[in-house]
Design brief:
It is built from nine helices and ten strands. It is α/β, with parallel strands linked by helices. The protein has a domain of 140 residues: P-loop containing nucleotide triphosphate hydrolases (Rossmann fold). Bound molecules: adenosine-5'-triphosphate. It comes from Calderihabitans maritimus.
Amino acid sequence: MIAVEARNLTKIYPGGVYGLRDVNLKIEEGEMVGILGPSGAGKTTLFRLINGALHPTSGRLKILGRTMSEISLNALRELRRKLAVIYQQHNVVPSLPVVYNVLMGSGGSLSLAQTVRLFFYLRKEEREEVFAVLRELGIEDKMYSRADELSGGQQQRVAVARAIISKPQLVLADEPIASVDPGTAIKVMETLRRLNSERGTTILVSLHQIDFALRYCSRLLVFSHGRLIYDGDPGGIRAIDLYQEDFDHVRCKGIGAQQSAETKI
Ligand SMILES: Nc1ncnc2c1ncn2[C@@H]1O[C@H](COP(=O)(O)OP(=O)(O)OP(=O)(O)O)[C@@H](O)[C@H]1O
């Protein structure tokens, strides 16, 4: 199945600011895609359109077989259960222990009864599952600590655990390693990669750290001023071009052509 398909996707914010301009792309299930671009390029706008938080101004967007412009509220709720979003600001609940943060965030799909039950009784398999995910991220010793007793990097790992415990089909990770130390960044990216390779989860991850994008992603989408200016494998683009402030000069404009570059990285 195709995870994400955009046709002439455009988002214009009030005031006439372009979030995205005429974007065409197709992402198959099971891909791990890095989204690059300078501040204001449109990366978050793309994520917000994909999770239905924003409506396109024009164009079409299909997510996991659903056309977003035709989706009912119920179907959107259902779709969101298959999506997990990891934000740069980890959005954990400060006063709650880590274990509840992880379990309760599972796609927002818990009913009130389930939420109440969690507070009174944690099943053994739930505890084990949370422990395993936290161990993978290196914070299993924090399982019963309040989230606000954790460092920023540890809280970010809680947010990652919360996103992946629900076994999503599609993960949207919006700058998940923006404000963490290099060791944490590696743990987060390794966890996403494992999710992708072991469960076939489609991962879209926006990054400012180009070295991480080149290392972990099999495909890169590069945005500039709302336009998709490169869509291809990491080998098709010169790393040096990605380090420039303004990506407009990126030479590989063969969108979807997967062309090879004159100079490989
Ligand atoms: N709510 C909004 N109202 C008006 N303009 C907006 C809004 N949100 C984003 N924009 C504009 O849309 C463009 C794309 O913003 P977006 O947040 O998608 O960029 P980004 O690539 O995620 O940037 P960053 O790397 O800084 O997070 C920018 O010019 C931004 O100012």
